[in-house]
Amino acid sequence: MSITTRARHLRPALTAGAAGAAVWLAGSPVALAAIPNPPADGTAPGAELVDTVLGWLKWAGLASALAGLLIGAIATGVGHFGSNHSASSAGRKWLLGGMGAAILSGLAWTIATTLYEATGP
């Protein structure tokens, strides 16, 4: 007997077994219990290190945003006054990237707290 023929013979038994298990779980008090969701606290091991690393990342994000703005401004100026349109175009891209990085760095705390409060207890 081939594997597909065996599967056809076993399909009704498997379906009935799955339906019976679903009925048993639905009536079981274990299936109806709520999953605990304890609140977060700062007493976890390494919490101070995480705060320090997040501070460094925030500083690095703002520094890279400022660097992008400065590089973009210089490239745009050099491209404009030197009649180099490709350098001017690249400078505008750097400026947009720096502005985007500054916006994301500035809104990171707001985004994180909004997501935490939306999914919290």
Give the SSE map:
Layout: H1 3-27, H2 29-32, H3 47-81, H4 85-119
Question: Could you describe the 3D structure shown?
Answer:
It is a single chain. The mean pLDDT is 77. The protein folds into two domains: 1-31; 46-121. By secondary structure, it is an all-alpha fold. The chain has helices at residues 3-27, 29-32, 47-81, 85-119. The two termini are 55 Å apart. The chain is built from four helices and no strands.
How would you summarize this macromolecular structure in one to three sentences?
The protein has 121 residues and is mostly helical. The chain is built from 4 helices and no strands. Helix 3 packs antiparallel against helix 4.
List keywords for this structure.
121 residues, mainly alpha, 2 domains, 4 helices, 82% helix
Described by the principal axes of the CA atoms, the overall outline is elongated
Count the helices. How many? 4
The averaged pLDDT comes out at 77
How many domains make up the coordinates?
2
Q: Please trace the helix and strand order, writing H or E for each element.
A: HHHH
Helix content: over 70%
Structure summary, number of beta strands: 0
The radius of gyration over CA amounts to: 29 Å
Low-confidence stretches: none
